[in-house]
Amino acid sequence: MSHGSALPAQRLDWLPLALIPAIALAALPFIPSLPTWVTLTVAGLAMGMMIFMMAAGLTLVFGLMDIMNFAHGVFISVGAYAGTSVLLAMKPSMQADSLAANLSAIVPAVLAAMALAGFLGWFFERVVIRPVYGDHLKQILVTMGGLIVVEQLIHVVWGPDIIPLPRPATITGSFIVGDAAIERYRVLAVLVGLAVFAAMWLILNRTRLGLLIRAGVENREMVESLGYRIRSLFVGVFIAGSALAGLGGVMWALYQESVNAQIGMQMMVVLFIVLIIGGLGSVGGCFVGALLVGLMANYTGYLAPKLALGSNILLMVLVLLWRPRGLFPVGRA
Amino acid sequence: MAEALLALAGVNTHIGQYHILQGVDFEVPRAGLTMLLGRNGAGKTTTLRTVMGLWQASAGAIRYDGAEITRRTTPERARLGIAYVPENMGIFAGLTVRENLLLAARSGPPEDRRLEWIFRLFPAMQKFWHAHAGNLSGGQKQMLAIARAIVEPRRLLLVDEPTKGLAPSIIANMIEAFRELKRTETSLLVVEQNFHFARSVGDTVAVMDCGRIVHAGRMADLAADDSLQQKLLGLSLQAHQ
Amino acid sequence: MLTTLLSGDLPRSRVLAVVLLAILAGLVLAPFVFPGTRSLNVAAKVAVFVLLVASYDLLLGYTGIVSFAHTMFFGIGGYGVGIAMAKLGAGWVSLALGIALALSLSAALALAIGLLSLRVRAIFFAMITLAVASFFQILASQLSGFTGGEDGITYKLPDLLLPGTKLVEMPLLGVELNGRLASYYLVVLAALACFLALLRVVNSPFGRVLLSIRENEFRSEALGYRTVTYRTAANCIGALGATLAGVLYAIWLRYTGPDTTLSFNIMIDILLMVVIGGMGTMYGAAVGATIFVVAQNYLQDLMALASAAAKGVPLLPGLLHPDRWLLWLGVLFIVCVYYFPTGIVGKLRAK
Lengths: 333, 241, 351
Ligand SMILES: Nc1ncnc2c1ncn2[C@@H]1O[C@H](COP(=O)(O)OP(=O)(O)O)[C@@H](O)[C@H]1O
Ligand SMILES: [Mg+2]
Hints:
The structure holds three protein chains of three kinds. Chain B is an alpha/beta fold. Chain B has helices at 44-52, 74-79, 97-104, 112-121, 123-127, 138-149, 168-182, 195-201, 219-224, 226-240; strands at 6-15, 18-28, 33-38, 57-64, 67-68, 82-85, 156-160, 187-191, 204-209, 212-218. Chain B has a domain at 92-153. Helices cover 39% and strands 27% of the residues of chain B. Chain B has a six-stranded mixed β-sheet, with helices on both faces. A four-stranded antiparallel β-sheet of chain B has the order 2-1-4-5, with helices on one face. In chain B, a hairpin with a 2-residue loop joins strand 1 and strand 2. In chain B, helix 3 runs parallel beside helix 6 (138-149). Chain C is an all-alpha fold. Chain C has 16 helices and two strands. A two-stranded antiparallel ribbon of chain C has the order 1-2. In chain C, helix 4 (70-88) packs across helix 11 and helix 13 (282-309) crosses helix 16. The chains are: A mainly alpha, B alpha/beta, C mainly alpha. Chains in contact: A-B, A-C. The interface between A and C is large, with 41 and 41 residues. Bound molecules: adenosine-5'-diphosphate (ADP) and magnesium ion. Adenosine-5'-diphosphate binds next to strand 2 and helix 1 of chain B. Residues 44-45, 87 of chain B line the site of magnesium ion.
């Protein structure tokens, strides 16, 4: 055999990872003071983590079943609204300045958001997506239709106006580190995001289920030929991804301290940018892409408000010029 | 004579609006290796995919081990003991050799004895146990694909062009490996363009053209009959000898 | 003669022929049959959207690609006229200049987007166009010195097209022959001409190659067609059609703003019109646009009545609220994609 010693294990492609500190450092000279930079960086990471939660399901579903769900944003909105309803219904526990009381409102709210979004995901997969399986054109159209209908139903159920949502007492306010003020909620968001990423990483890399998912992303037919029903695997991933989007939605609502029916659609554009930057179907790419987008949005948002989204589209174009299939291209052609 | 392990009767397959298989009839006996030959585009790959359930037959019947499987899903067929090595090998490039084999072993981690036997057939598998499959050479990928199909004992092995793009020395290894496989309880259905390889390992043979079987018989008879080869395989024979 | 005008693509259904004639007659006779500002506005909007939707159908129905950037090209046309009129003065030369610049910009952008992303896959193209269109929306709202930001721009047109201009002293059949009427007929006739041109495109050998690529890319590549080239060309033609529609709309409204051109809601409206009217037939675009625009203006009145009547029943008034009419169109849209992928026109022709 031509090879001498053992083959190198696939090397970690670190270059895209280095982009995260690179962007943070590149922003430093433009920001007037170090404390502001620290605040913005934490804000960017927090935003990135929430975007990652919303986008993870979308990229996995695409990788596994070659389906791009243009209605993924509705899971975000539905999660946000469901969580908000629960939180508003438990106002006294929210306002109490005790962590236990706050948690007794937040935990049910998060569960409600994930459950409703997950259920909607299950329904969507069965009713809307399954009949147009394998037909990209119809998928895009039908999921767009689903987006319109659910967004309108949200108007019917929750009304057309923005609903304000004050944050629970214990996660309002900031830590002061040196001269920098770091909002508590952002730290919480970073921690939750890291926990979700770690859990996903462990499941994907350390369990048989994860092995199946990774194999399915690469070659669906072969996984079936090995005797596994990828359908049920896919339904599971779809529901889990929708529930995660719901979690992201309720966290986003708390971050914005309000909800409106358009957040789903507004986030879709951001999610697509993240997916394209990261490489369609790649969870790691999705994570890196989300953090890049979050940081970029906060730095430019500070320097030139309103250009935040624009700067990310520019970032996407630059990434595509460098790597036409995203930072971490996934196997399938 | 016992009933064949696999029998196709009047199988038709459409891909989109195209009518690819137009009534395929042939059998794979319960032992040995059946070669499926024919020129490019004859429908060999489509036949294997139809047997595996990756295309649905639009008419006709596929019987396997005494039961009809025409309407069964791909995973069901796999669980009945059919394994498939596609033309592009279908290995999971991002998974290690070990993970590729673990995934294929449906009933838990493979037995040591079985693994040792596989390592004897394909030593490269042991050497690159923790390497990512995407980093293997073409021949090693082909070996991994076959190893994956037999990591547990299977009844019927479908292999699409195992020697495609391989160097002659590696083809010699493959011939050895297939001879060893024939000594097990597994029956094989192998699609091939390389007549030298086909003659070396085939027991029975079926020849396809334009979506139909045009000849079926013993490999030895075909190998001995130059004019029949000329007639059935035409140019593809000269191109590959 | 008629066959030549329609490029050999006849309605092939008596009902469809009657419907199309009714639409045409309605548009041509609107100022005389339905006088009043509102109905004339509806008629002009129908004409503009027939062109806009037809140009979108060239992409979706004939080429099989989903673009979310169609409103961007629509907006480029609108802003081209608006900015030229506001900055260079309300003359014919500046109008022509604005249109020429808008068309060149659209063609260049469509070419770039096509070459960048059409070689990959339908989904990728859809996502990229969505992002680029969002970028443009931001651009328009930020460059307020040029575009008037969220407020948009209001401008004058050459005198001939202004309502104050009387063309003939005597009213005809009770209708004043003024600049408003002139600009109405300019819009309708230009839209009709562009529509016939698109009909010609899809019935040319070029159009047939597009169809064969949509049917089976694999085979078409094998037959030696450069699919990326064909798709990119279709993308450019579609973009030019949308730009012209934007130009006409800007001429009619004498106003250009994000809500009338770039808004994502208009993109959704276009999708609804194409699918409900019938993908893959230019006549579907005409029928879909007409039904939609008329419904948009009159169905809501009807829903207000129904909603009031349903008072007291839980949830029903909310579902029937006039602002919720998109809900019902969305449902209709999904049903169409599943069960009538060829839309109304497909159904009529099948009979
Ligand atoms: N996805 C497909 N779409 C359309 N035609 C196909 C497709 N796959 C294969 N074909 C056609 O089916 C015929 C048989 O192909 P195949 O079974 O791959 O032949 P073989 O394996 O014998 O070379 C060929 O004419 C090929 O062009
Ligand atoms: Mg083949």
